[in-house]
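Lab channel / #folding
Pinned by the channel admin:
"Please post every new chain as: sequence first, then the structure tokens as a reply. Keep commentary short and put observations after the output so the thread stays searchable."

First post following the new format, from NK:
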Amino acid sequence: MPIQDARLRELKFLTMLEQAGDRIVYTPTTDDSVESQMVVHLLQSVLVNDVGHYAFDGHALHAVQEAEVNRLRDIGSVLAGRKVVLGITHKGRVRRAELEETIQTGRDRDPTGLAIARKYLERDISVALLHASAESPVCVALLDMNGLKAINDDAKNHAIGDAAIRAYLQVIVSRLDTGWDAYRGEGGDEVTLIMRSVSIDAATRTLQGVLQQLQRETIRVSDADRPLSASCGIVAATSSKTDPGALLSRVEAAQYRAKALSRRPGRPSTLAVEDGEATVIAATPNE
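Reply from TO:
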């Protein structure tokens, strides 16, 4: 297993223990030796089950000795596929926070330097979803620029298309709040946003503002100024158990509905919220 995958798996497990708020009964999965080895590592490193977990005796030395005996017993139980009781320790909470920070540092950027490279998208959604709840939703948006092929064809100059993409990205990233990130691949105009701790209504208002601002931007093509526009889908996750791949499929479906509505004269910006109708976002005068 790659190092990054192992770290993410450990982060998910420690987060689950922390969110449980108390001890849980853990049953090893016989066909998942990687997870069993990870739990053994957590026990050995005292990231779970410290002295207080095992010892109820007032004698300090005896308590430590008894804890070590019980720790070895629990390690043996995990390796044998038997149930054990686990609880995160203070050291485990510190490790969980360090893992989350480490996983999301040093990420490469897209060629413009304005967005994070798309290869980190699914991993970062997995991390964001660890904290998703009804009180703190995670919203994901997918934007696709309208008419880029026509701009390239009419201009017969990909430098103009590249300038249009840069202007489009600059509008998007200028509206990002703290804890929100934009992702884009090596080429193309699809941009995915992860928006943490925001309601679907607030995310929708933000994206409406992005689309309105985008239409105030123009690109010069064949002696004419063309306004930019995009199609956007938005979905929300309110559970830490949400599957990242399923969430991406949902936002793609919403964006597809928005894209279908945009295929009309003038290629307006459009927006579709999951389970809602796709709508045209009218341009507003320059502020």
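NK: The chain has a mean pLDDT of 88.
TO: also worth noting, The longest strand covers residues 138-145.
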